[in-house]
């Protein structure tokens, strides 16, 4: 009797959940048809007829909406990957400084983390863009011969030029996420028992060797999952690009929605592309995690 | 046990019954009357058109058009909820029914009007604008050609974005568009020197310039890139509301044609009441003919409108006239008798 009741209960819950989803989808389709906006993706092949300032692949205004979306996706990918690297680098340095024995460095990095974490990302992006880069006016901040130059037109690095929109987004996302990554790394290091430090010191290993050979390998399993979720956050936060005029996939979607009126289709595309992107990130992190765990086994 | 199961089944049926959307066509007009409040989508960021004043009230030409609608439909121009919307949000807001109508610097175009496009319907044009370019005087830029290979700040998701592209493409000039979501960001980008020029409707350029520290250091180029007829809009499937909106705007224009103003409306009503031979005036003011009822409004809707906002000329003078914050010459926005394009069909 008890068992059959459980089965019935599960069956009931299943029916409720299923019918609720059904109702929602049914509602959406009927309302879409009623407002004359039935699902349709034919517009994807029509010419986009808007210009883009930045494109990794050749793009002209006669290219299709689908191509424009791909360009936007690549622009997003570009800024996500590069700020991910910057954030990891900065975060690692600050995380170690925070846990290290140098109390001045520890204080500075604690201050950095506090300031960055207590202010909204949108504000920081606006700061980097309107004050950091555009605030330079015509002046050049740093110029090292023809190798490296920062001005209000962006960053120039040996022939490669990054627009001020991209650079502001890179610094904004990188710095913001680095503060969180620093905390993840600090947490990872602190998770290693105190005795491990004492152990390698008593074996006569230097601080560096001990950190690299003993502490970090043990801290990594605790760091990786936290790092993954910070990377995923960074990817999602990149949609704030629209605030600083960078043509990421969200900004391009915005334009397309306005030109075609296909809001629901566009949001489905946007959702799918972010899902794909984030699955890519989390799966790669999962692989890295497995490699680390395996390598420890054979040590 | 069986009771539980049948309970779940009946609950499911109840839910699906509730949620199946009613397909019957009730007009938004009746909904507004029942609610006793008009939800009007505005920009809220363009001085002269719709701008949030320091006392918390919305002011401008677009806002007065909202007030005219509320006066005609509800009989009270204060019962309005203003919804500030970005360019990208505005059409979805109409289609989902979040707002009743839009009075927000919206350009009347084929794809926005058509069923296969945005599926809206437009009331008559309330402001004829054109897209222009603003540059710094000291830059020495005088024409489109001078802007070749330069960056131009533009608001994304607007006809502006498409027009600037068409203009530069047809002149075979390369340029870099820097797109922002919001006009304020376009202005900030331009003032901070990210772009050599900013583009928008000429009225918006003038409005933005009025807020600069040194407005005289910026010039609006003579080149007009497009026609921008700005009109209120509503859902294309609701003819009743669309008709009411159309004739509210015509009432504003017709009142100006006939010299009926906020200050003399009461006299005109008395005049019409006392003189049965003044047929057109009696029909216009709702004494004869029952024109208002045909639209689903009260018969004296014209009187309601004019006594709140005044006629079109008065609204224009108040917000965009010589003595206003954002003076824009009337140009095309004059009556047809004075060299403009405004004319109202007869109230018959």
Account of the 3D structure:
The complex is a heterodimer of chains A (299) and B (348). Chain A has 299 residues and is mainly alpha-helical. Chain A has a domain at 68-120 and 164-298: MetI-like (MetI-like fold, Orthogonal Bundle). Chain A has 9 helices and 4 strands, in the order ααααββββααααα. Chain A has helices at 2-34, 65-99, 103-118, 121-133, 164-190, 194-202, 207-237, 249-260, 263-298; strands spanning 142-144, 148-151, 154-157, 160-162. Chain A has a 4-stranded antiparallel β-sheet with strand order 1-2-3-4. In chain A, β1 and β2 form a beta hairpin. In chain A, α7 packs antiparallel against α9 (263-298). Chain A starts with a helix and ends with a helix. With 348 residues, chain B is α/β, with parallel strands linked by helices. Chain B folds into 2 domains: 28-127 and 230-338, D-Maltodextrin-Binding Protein, domain 2 (3-Layer(aba) Sandwich); 131-226, Periplasmic binding protein-like II (D-Maltodextrin-Binding Protein, domain 2), CATH 3.40.190. In chain B, strands 8, 9, 10, 11, 12 and 13 form a 6-stranded mixed β-sheet that branches. In chain B, strands 5-1-6 form a 3-stranded parallel β-sheet. In chain B, α3 crosses α9, α3 runs antiparallel to α13 and α9 packs across α13 (301-309). The radius of gyration of chain B is 23 Å and the shape is globular. The model of chain B is unreliable at 14-24 (pLDDT under 50).
